[in-house]
Amino acid sequence: MDQTALVIAVDGPAASGKGTLSRRLAAHFGLAYLDTGSLYRGLAMLAMDKGLDLSDEQAVALLAPKLDQSVLENPHLRDPGVGEAASKIASLNHVRQALLTYQRNFAGKAPGAVLDGRDIGTVVCPDADVKLFVTASVEERAKRRFKELIANGKQVTLDEIEAEIKRRDARDTSRNTAPLVQSEDAHLLDTTNLDIETAMSAAILLVKQAIDAKK
């Protein structure tokens, strides 16, 4: 890893606001940004398109080299079914290993990067300069994802989204490989009652304090 690279790891459950915060943090500090969840969503979408058994980890992992910008920017990446499939393949060791090198190489290039996901601070970048764990209540996260999907023309109900988020939380926190867990040295940011601007101010302050503490 380039010694001049500043790495900010942002973890948290689905629809906690970590993606929006991470993109803004990257812009604020002049860093690259990687939504690692899009890698799993993209891989899941490719596997579904090919009709693969999502439990066949070797077959799914072999699709990793096919991930490119056209896949990662596909509007269907945010569909509930793709998110559900992504959560399933994210528990597969071969899949995680196939994407691990990509993520670490991305983080290691100067001037650095902000990566958001489920295991950035614990597995992907355990030596990150700053670690944030962004969360919110299940109810609030369901409302956010529901509004996002409705705005994009998706036909879903709030109850469906809340049920999906609960299933994803259960899978993400209980899987044997790289479960979702707050790193011991991560700063907790609960956004349940925060608007984006307030959450952003809090995140910037936490990052600056963490950087200053390392000097």
Summarize the structure.
This protein is α/β, with parallel strands linked by helices.
Total strands: 5
Number of helices: 10
Q: How many domains?
A: 1
Radius of gyration, rounded? 17 Å
- Assembly status: single chain
Determine the fraction of residues in helical runs and give it as a percent range.
40-55%
CATH superfamily: P-loop containing nucleotide triphosphate hydrolases
**CATH fold label:** Rossmann fold
Distance between the termini: 19 Å
The chain-level structural class is alpha/beta
Mean pLDDT: 92
What report would you give on this structure?
This protein has 215 residues and is of the alpha/beta class. It has a single domain, classed as 3-Layer(aba) Sandwich (Rossmann fold), CATH 3.40.50.300. 53% of the residues lie in helices and 12% in strands. It is built from ten helices and five strands. The chain has a five-stranded parallel beta sheet, with helices on both faces. The longest helix has 19 residues.
